[in-house]
Structure formats: structure tokens, C-alpha cells
Specification:
The complex is a heterodimer of chains A (538) and B (105). Chain A is mainly alpha-helical. Chain A has 23 helices and 7 strands. Classes of the chains: A mainly alpha (538), B mainly alpha (105).
Amino acid sequence: MASLPKPDELAGINYNPPRTGWRDTPVEFRRGTYCYGAKPKNLEAVGLPNPRDWSPEDQDWKLPENWKEIILEGLRERLGRFRSLQIFMDACVRCGACADKCHFFIGSGDPRNMPVLRAELLRSVYRRDFTTAGKIFGKLAGARDLTEEVLKEWYYYFFQCTECRRCSVFCPFGIDTAEITILARELLNLVGCNIDWIAAPVANCYRTGNHLGIQPHAFKDMIDFCTEDIEKVTGVKVEPTFNRKGAEVLFITPSGDVFADPGTYTLMGYLMLFHEIGLDYTFSTYASDGGNFGLFTSHEMMKRLNAKMYAEAGRLGVKWILGGECGHMWRVIHQYMGTMNGPADFLEEPVSPITGTRFEHARSTKMIHIAEFTADLIRHNKVKLDPGRNNHLKVTFHDPRNTSRAMGLFEEPRYVLRSVCNHFREMPENTIREQTFCCGSGAGLNTDEYLEMRLRGGFPRANAVRYVHEKYGVNTVACVCAIDRAVLPTLMDYWVPGVGVAGLHELVGNALVMQGENDRTTDLRGNPLHGREEGEDV
Amino acid sequence: MSEINLAGVAVQIDEDGFIQDTGKWNEAVAKALAETEGITGLSEDHWKIINYLRKYYLEFGIAPMIRKLCKETGYDLKTIYELFPSGPAKGACKIAGLPKPTGCV
């Protein structure tokens, strides 16, 4: 692991471009700023090409002999399949509106992290081989040959984009740079150049249904542990079921919520809520992760890994699917699943059994987000809440890139937050909702060997938290994404010490008044309700 | 991926020093792995944690939740960090020969 610079050093960002032009500045694979290459066993597990031992630091990447033809043929095929790609390649006028909107550019000062230039890395090759001007005039027309150096540059910079789409919000042509990254990563995968932090969860997901490789008995053991903790805090015994045929609802959440803190407290919140309203639901130990790192690999892999959701819903005979607090899972569900693995005609349009609300917008996918579900419960006064139990928390809300820009989920989590907390403050408006800054670690980049770059990419988000921390004493960032819950604690400890991280439903669980509960003396983490002790965030 | 010799056993390790074939693990390998973490001499406290991790892993095929590790061994997280400065996942699990957790963690 590379040694980490101090925050003061890292914040001294140099925005002067290098002396040499971007075409003539080789990529330096410096520790802390790139991700490890995919291990052969993980590529073999799902039949991806060119499994071999390699490292991005090696001179020889052990590419297939005809790698160049493979990439160019792959690009040709995708230009035909995705009209969007063709338009994105042709439409950019390099106006630069996106240039300073990327968190990686803001945090690194590296010009190749300007979205316009990141796209240009691919566009220059497109021009050379797919446009007449580029074929004839070459460099004069902004074209360049595809070489191994270019491929290495792609690897470095397309795994230095979290596909967050903040840049797209500002593009006058609506160019979706995330889609360019998605397709560039597909091309890299054709010659075996994925990162292991994506390849390993993909392999695990294919084998066990979740990123971590949690088998059914372990999945149950982890959730049982959470039910014991709930009983300790509330005195109420909740009894979730697994793979139960005939349940009304299938509940799918990220496996990070089941395994890792602080996501496990969010899981406790779900379990408590479902118990209290008497929801007839079941977990599946195979559709045991909503997350889908296939999205960061290729369209085909995304489809393969997503298929378990409808398959399990069909096998168990549920009516509809409820999804937990995840980011990229919702991009897949909301934008692809209904047609990609649907139509799920065997399911019903989701109707809340508690309020009778019909979620018409989910007619195609048959799946709704838990923030919508809970907001609806609160709106209809179906749960009793004591927001005073969150009085030790001064909360702000981080919109994940995917639930905000890929599905427009802005109001529901805020409505829930305002109902379960007395102290809620927004970060500055150009850093939230559709303009939200990414955590800096999404799209499969939440790995520790990449920590310096994650902290750079997360700097704008942290800076906005710091603003409300200093101005209003905010001490908690609430979020609705498992990657956020995994990475924001590290980001906060580094840039804004003293600020913790909690899932939305952890705060719901704190505030939820349950029938037959004990006098609550602690929150779900075991911290006293009045006068929060220090150093409890793990 | 590279091969190193740990206590006379040739093992494959990844970039972060996690052994790839957990079947090659034994107590001598654990001691050698501890040295790569800058821990010389494994105490009874260390072994209690390592043995619990091994036992859980062999039964469940994955590391336990950190809160479960704390509850079952009786050590709080602060103590675990004192014993294993890289933490429960990067330190203790590595020495116990478990694979690195991946995904949204």
C-alpha cells in the first residue's frame, strides 16, 4: 500500500497543466492512483477473455497478439449497436462546460480528468479509424493511432471515472460521459484489462449471488446476528424469513448491508420497520445482493448478474420486489432491468399492503425503492416515530450519483429524514440533488490500493460536508448507498474528522417506536441517546 | 501475484500480501504473515482472534462480521486495532489466511 500524503499536502492541488501536451505525456502508474489488474481466476469464473497474471505496472501487459483488431472491431460493433455512442463521439465541440465539474479533476488537477479530455482519449482513436477526416488528415483532425500506450492510458483514466454523470448535467449537448466510460471499459475487457476490485465481485456474484461470496448459511448467520442486536436494543424479537415461497414481497439489498459496518445498522433498521408494519416479505439467499458490478464490466455481464432478481421473484412466487439502499443497483433496475431481463409479467404492479398506495411508476420493473416505500408509510401515518431519539445527530444528506441522476430520487429520502430527525441541514445547492458530488469511490473504485485517488475524488463532497459541519455543527452524513456507507467514513476521517456516516434506515430504526419495546436507552449502535460518546464510528 | 516463502512453505500472495490458497495456512505461516505486518511474536490475545477467524471461515466460507468478531472474542475494535494495526480485515484476516473481502465494503 502506498503511503498517504497528509490532508494539507493533498489539498495543495496543482491546476497547471504539464509542459507537454496530453498526447505526449505518458501515464505514470503511481501507487495509490491506479487499481490492481484482474486476477485470472476471476476472469475465468465468468469466461472473460485473456486471463493471465499481470500488473498495470509491468511493461508487458500480455495482451493477445491481435489486441488492436479486437478493440477496433469491438468499437465498430458498439458504434453500430449504440447510436448514443456514435452521437457522443461526433457531437462534442470541446466547449469545456464539463471541464471543471468532475470531482476527479477538482481533486487531482490532472487535465485528462476533465470529462471532455477523458472522452477525447477514445474519440481520438474513433476519428483515426472511423472518420474520413481523421483517416486523411490524422493528427490535424484530432486523430491518433491506437497503441499500447493509448490502451494503458485508457485503463488509467477510464478507471478514474466513477460514471457519476455530474459532467453530463452541464453538457449543452447532453453527452453522457459515463456511457463513454462504460463502453471504454467494455473494450478494455475484450482484451482482459479489467481491475480486480470489479472482477472479483463479479465472479463472486455469479457464483453465490453476491459480491462478497456469502453462502446461504453465512447470509442467514449474519442477519441472525442483527436480529439478536435488535432484541438487545429494543427488547423486540424480529423474525425475518429466507427463501420463503408465497411471501408477498421479495426484499433485495446490497450485501454490504449484511456484512459490513455501518451498513449492518441500516439492515437493522429495515428489519425493525418490516416487523413493525407486519410486512409479508422474504429474503432470497441467492438474490442476496442488489449491487451489480457487471454494470462496470459490460452490458452482457450486467444482464447476467441482474437476472437473479426476476428469477428468484418467480421461483418464490412473490407479487413484487422491494429494494434496499443501494446506488448503482438502482441504475441497473431503473434504466435497464424491465426490458433487459423482463418483461416480468408474472409479477404485479407494486401496491403497499399497508397503505394501499399503487406505485404506478414501477409498472415496468415491479420493483420499488425502500425510501419511496417508507416515505409513503410515514405520509399515511402508519408508523410511530420519535425523532428525538436522533437528537444526538445533526444530519446532512448525501445524494448518491445513481439514485439522483439515474432515477431522480430526491424528495423521498429527505421526507423520511425530516420525519425521523430534528436536526437536518442541506449542503450547498450546487453539491446536492442532480448536482451532487460523487463519493469518489463508486463504479467499482472503492478499493484500498486506490486510496489516494479516492480521497482526491471525494474531496469536493467532503468539502461540502465540511461547510455544514463548521456552520451548523453537522456530525452525520446520511446516505442511501452501500458504497457510500463503506467509503464515506474513511473520507470523513481524512477530510472532516468528527463526522460519522449512517444509512437512512438506521435513523428510521432509531426513531421507530415499536410495539412492546423496552425503554430505549441507546441508539442502534449502542450509543447513549443523550450525549453521544466519541469515537463510536467503525 | 507473486510467490514467497513463508516458514518453509511456498505460497502465492496477492499485491497486498494475502495468501491465495488458504489450504496452505498453518500456525508457522501465520507467524510469518504476522511479521510481514510488523507483528513479532503472536500473543494469546492474537491467537484467540486468529483461531476464531479460522473457525468461522472454515464453517461459513467467509470472514465474520466485525461486530460478531468483537462479540464472540470479547475484544472491542480498539483492542483489535492495537493487536493488529492494519485492522481486522487487512491485518487479522490476512494473518489468519482468509481472502480479502470485496464488493461494497
